[in-house]
Design goal:
Blueprint (H helix, E strand, L loop, with lengths): L1 H11 L14 H13 L9 E2 L4 E3 L2 E3 L4 E2 L3 H4 L44 H18 E4 L13 E3 L3 E3 L6 E4 L2
Antiparallel strand pairs: 1-4, 2-3, 5-8, 6-7
Helix pairs in contact: 1-4
Bound molecules: protoporphyrin IX containing FE (HEM).
Protoporphyrin IX containing FE binds next to helix 4.
Amino acid sequence: MRRLQQEVTKIGQGRPMIPEEDLDKMQYLKAVIKESLRLHPSFPLLLPRESTQDVKLMGYDISSGTQVIINAWAIGRDPAEWEDPEEFRPERFLNKLNDYKAHTFKWIPFGAGRRGCPGIQFSVVVMELALANIVYKFDLALPNGVNYKDLDMTEKFGITLHRNSSLMVIATPRF
Ligand code: HEM
């Protein structure tokens, strides 16, 4: 949080708001959002798909008409692909290789290919703009001296993924 706030503060330069034009200068902010989507993808099982023809994929026979469910949540935590997969470490995204459309298939919060999410660009800008301005304008703290390590991070699975318990945060205006 400290590093993120330092980045947006430096680029905000005391202006009332961070504008969209400044988002490309915020590499750590982008990495924070990517890492959040790795650990907590909004659509943990993407959207169910159905094979339209018989295919052989990595040795598996998938007949026409089979419903296919992709576990993006598990893919993002695969220890074969990610070092210390359970740790929130945005630094791992501080390179160009892991872009939303990199198609490495080890990180697919928006799916991939022909049926991948067409709303990527819109939603990424909205998330970046909202997060940048929240941490630019507010100091965020947990109530009653709660340590972030004690937060209950249990998730509730459905079509979308969200926290099991509400996150209580105290936001104090910075200026
Ligand atoms: C954080 C925000 C969003 C996330 C994480 C997200 C994620 C996804 C995922 C995982 C899929 C399934 C991809 C697949 O099966 O390979 C999908 C499909 C889709 N998304 Fe998004 N999405 C987001 C926002 C949006 C927005 C803002 C729009 C529209 C403006 C949108 C429109 C769609 C549509 C139309 C599909 C179906 C595409 C198809 O079946 O061809 N999404 N999205």
